[in-house]
Amino acid sequence: MFNYRIPGANAGSTVTYQFTGLDRRARIQDGACREMRNMSTDNAPCLSPRKGRRKVTDYSSATLLLHKDGKPFVVDGTSVKFDGRTVGSVAAGRKRAVVMNDWVFLWPDKKAFNAKTEEFCSMEASVGALAVRFTNSTIKRTDGGGWPFKAGDGVTIEGCSQDYNNRTAVVQAVDGSTLTFYDNVFQYGELGGEGNQNTHEWQEAAVTLSRTVPDLDFVCEKDNRLWGVYGNHICCCKLGDGFNWNVFNGLATDAYDVGVGSDGDFTGIAGYASYVLAFKESCVHKLYGTKPTNFTVNTSYISGVQADCADTLCVYNNVLYYLSREGVMAYGGGTPEPVGMQLASSYDRACAGMHGAKYYLCGVGQEGAEILVYDTEKNLWAREDETEAAGFSSCGGALYLLDADGGLWQCGTGDLVSWEAVFGPFETVAPEKKKSGRLDLVLTADRGAVLAVDTRIDGQGWREAWSGAARRTDCTVAVPYLPVRGHGFSIRLRGTGRVTLHAINRRFKEGSAR
């Protein structure tokens, strides 16, 4: 805020005391910032720098971060680390992770980690080719060995001489080398032939049994089930069991799989309110229901999640935020509303995290990366810096950021940051050029905080008008400079340390049209 009183005719001043965050559109409010770095909406309508970040640790090539039971779970290259200790290994590359109960599940490796027991295992299991003995309801290993299955597993059987027995069946019991299934699951001889419902026993020479998991592109948790998409299918696991996706007994606890007819690839999936949302770029498939027998899929042709932006899906206050081709969207169950018009930017890929009421978005485009923060309660955007984030995770009241180089940072610390905010140009539609002569900044600052003020007229180069350090907590900084005529007057504030800007008062005189 600038207080200037210029005596004489045609003198005037304009006071700005409502600061409305980042806005890159062609015409903006006087209180909006054309550009900013390391600013925050914490004290809005005043303007202030963001809090600091402090590095917690370095990983060699981390690609995934989440917190489970208050401890960091990180995929670092081929190592899976929990609370700093290596607990398993995976193939190198990007991962999809989802948490259900005590387990963390990873795709495309199809690995699972139990945070309580610290067991790390494959989601799939297979054994064969084996010589086995069949009855109408059992399979027994002739070598006396055990099975890697448990009761309730959906097991796919292959290699039988009779095609009918090459099927998926649900294990009812495991007793040493014997698997028990439902009665008459298997048939001996011609299907439907006389006596084939009677108990028979026969041998197969090379049978393979396996518990398989689909190759999911995206995955989420909703109502104690894992939901995912692959190809043009939406599917879910058995209730409470992320290891079983092929259990179809006609029960409420069964798994589920359905194909959809829309064009294009899936771009993300999220649990929201009472349904699951499976996104493509131009539509969303909503899956309703409480059990497989009443699951229903409806399709809405809305602006969906942009490709390579599945990690921008975040929910706060029953609103789902994500990045689409048209910008950041807020979805409340009907038609999504754009909330990122102020950014006027597009990105090739992005990720996001939610911390409190703030939506942290890292977008990577042709001009590099940037972290932007949307205050969902104040409807304001702020820009932090050029850090490229690989992921965000919130835990214990703190936000953690994993950067693209493997650095893990805690956000919201007391560390000081260098900041910058650009205002204007403050334009006039009058034919006369205004002659700006002084600014007054009303601010509060920590003692020793450094501030510099630069000015620019009609798009010319920046000129430093004033710089100094704060000597008092509350002060008004008078910024005099040589009067310059022009239609568009811009201000750039730069500094280090904690400064809160309350108002800008611009003093000017009317000039001629020449």
- Kindly name the structural category: mainly beta
Strand content: over 45%
Number of helices: 0
| Low-confidence region ranges | 1-10
Major beta sheet, strand line-up: 17-16-20-14-15-19-18
Determine the oligomeric state from the structure: single chain
Largest beta-sheet details: 7 strands, antiparallel
Mean pLDDT: 91
- Sum up the overall morphology in one term: elongated
* Global Rg: 31 Å
Helix share of residues? under 10%
For the termini, the CA-CA separation is 29 Å
Work out the number of β strands: 46
Describe the 3D structure.
With 514 residues, the chain is an all-beta fold. Helices cover 0% and strands 54% of the residues. The protein contains no helices and 46 strands. The protein has a 7-stranded antiparallel sheet with strand order 17-16-20-14-15-19-18, with no helix packed on it. The model is unreliable at 1-10 (pLDDT under 50).
Give a brief rundown of this model:
The protein has 514 residues and is an all-beta fold. It contains no helices and 46 strands.
